[in-house]
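Exercise 7b. Backbone tokens:
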């Protein structure tokens, strides 16, 4: 296992060797923090959302799974790795090389609550994303079968069942939590 000193710069973090196995690290408060490995429902929801958003965003932008984003949080470098992000074509950085982290705040970040995480923790992370310039954050809760949308200038809104999630930021994208969970093949959570 790689030994990591207590405080890193973003450049030192980027130069670290890959982690053991499939471990993904986020850069938070000067530290390399292992991301919770996805479980079955998380993976199925990520795949379903990737499919649904990818179908919608043809010629509009691109959706990426588990792509790191270079942001700042409370004045410090921050590099989270959300389950999905969507970046509209007009926001693509001109100098973005394909094999680097996203260097601009995306239009949308999607986080899926994993076992061991709480809605409250991801609510705080959603606020950090918005403060860093991300335009929308969706937090997907497999136990509640819900999608909560966080806005920079309005209270969050939770969508459940067949209530249609429509957002002027994503013209022509209409989906429901039920549609997402059905696409993922998740009928009930035990």
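Sequence design result:
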């Amino acid at each position: 296992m790689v030994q990591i000193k207590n405080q890193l710069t973003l450049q030192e973090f980027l130069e670290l060797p890959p982690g053991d196995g499939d471990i993904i690290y986020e850069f938070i408060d000067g530290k390399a923090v292992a991301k919770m490995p996805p479980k079955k429902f998380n993976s199925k929801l990520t795949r379903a959302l990737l499919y649904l958003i990818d179908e919608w965003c043809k010629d509009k932008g691109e959706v990426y799974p588990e792509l790191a984003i270079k942001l700042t949080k409370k004045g410090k470098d921050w590099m989270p790795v959300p389950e999905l992000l969507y970046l509209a074509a007009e926001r693509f950085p001109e100098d973005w090389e394909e094999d680097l982290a996203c260097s601009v705040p995306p239009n949308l970040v999607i986080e899926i609550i994993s076992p061991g995480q709480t809605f409250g923790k991801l609510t705080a992370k959603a606020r950090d994303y918005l403060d860093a310039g991300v335009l929308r954050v969706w937090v997907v809760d497999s136990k509640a079968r819900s999608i909560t949308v966080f806005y920079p200038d309005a209270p969050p809104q939770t969508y459940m069942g067949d209530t249609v999630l429509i957002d002027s930021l994503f013209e022509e994208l209409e989906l429901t939590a039920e549609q997402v969970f059905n696409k993922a093949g998740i009928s009930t959570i035990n």
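Instructor comment: Residues 37-183 form a domain with the tt1808, chain A fold (CATH 3.90.1570.10). The CA atoms of residues 55 and 61 lie 11 Å apart.
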